[in-house]
Specification:
- By secondary structure, the protein is α+β, with helices and mostly antiparallel strands.
- It is built from 11 helices and 13 strands.
- The strands form 4 sheets. It has a 5-stranded mixed sheet with strand order 3-2-1-4-7, sandwiched between helices.
- α2 crosses α3 and α5 packs across α6.
- The radius of gyration is 30 Å and the shape is elongated.
Length: 351
Amino acid sequence: MIDYETYMKIKNYNENEGLNCNQISAITGLSFKTVSKWLDEDRYRMRKPADRSSKLDPYKNQILQMLEKYPYTAAQIFLRIKDNGFDGGYTIVKDYVRKMRPKKYKAYLKLSFAPGECGQVDWGSFGSVNVGSTTRRLSFFIMVLCYSRMMYLEFTVSQTMEHFLNCHKNAFEFFGSVPEKIMVDNLKSAVLSRAIGQAPVFNPRYLDFAHHYGFGITPCNIRAGNEKGRVENAVGYVKKNFLHGLDIPDFSAIHPAAKLWLDNVANVRIHGETHKRPVDIFEEERPSLNPLPLNPFDVATVLQVRASSQFRINFDSNRYSVPAEYAGEKLTLKACPDRILLYKDQKLITN
């Protein structure tokens, strides 16, 4: 005896997709005889248990017919069959409706991309890692070229704007080229605000970076992270195939390990969707990508700070010392992904 959901699948395969009994049998694993029997039925009829009866039994076919016509709630169905003479409780109706109601699956449009058209980026996080004598949260940045599925991976201990831009820059240099557009989620490093029905407000630094490298920014729709499914899948792939079980003694050890994994596993595997190696399809995609600019973008953040009377400055929840003679002075701070530089009137005083 099959359940109602399987019955609806059999009907759908036959009536909407035009499959015959043999094809449906191969897909569902049911016998040809079972498929043929249920195709001949005009509606689902549940076989009554021989050894147990219920007050609801006389109303089950009526409930099924109601569910086929409209997504009634269990409470609505309870009231309707009560008017028809049902004298049982609400719980038995609710349990039966939950069991028999066809499951609803969210439908997603599968996006297709031309060679060189798009890259998708995202951050991932994976526990913590030792950095010298301290412990920091471990983050990783991924860029995936949508056509070839060629992947770039970089690990960081921060997701600041400097790291976000620097990872982009390193990814473009890894590919040796730039796609037409980059698809991002609505993270603040890329999109400052996004309201339904209005144009997104991009982070001006990311916009400057995009203009420098010549790519367009395409943010996902609100609550539609599935639109960048290629990189979402890549984040999970990195965690399962690379990070799980990996012994990372120190942050400095993860970069060579990641490069080795990219070159010998991720980009040379047979991809589940394309059934080809990303590195091979990348050679087809390469001519459609845009060249790198002559000069790289300076990803550092520059701002004015004032040293305290104890000749220290505060930045990003950290305190940095400067030479004592600069106590109380206005200084220029340049925050790079890997270091902090401090200037006084164009003179570098510490890093």
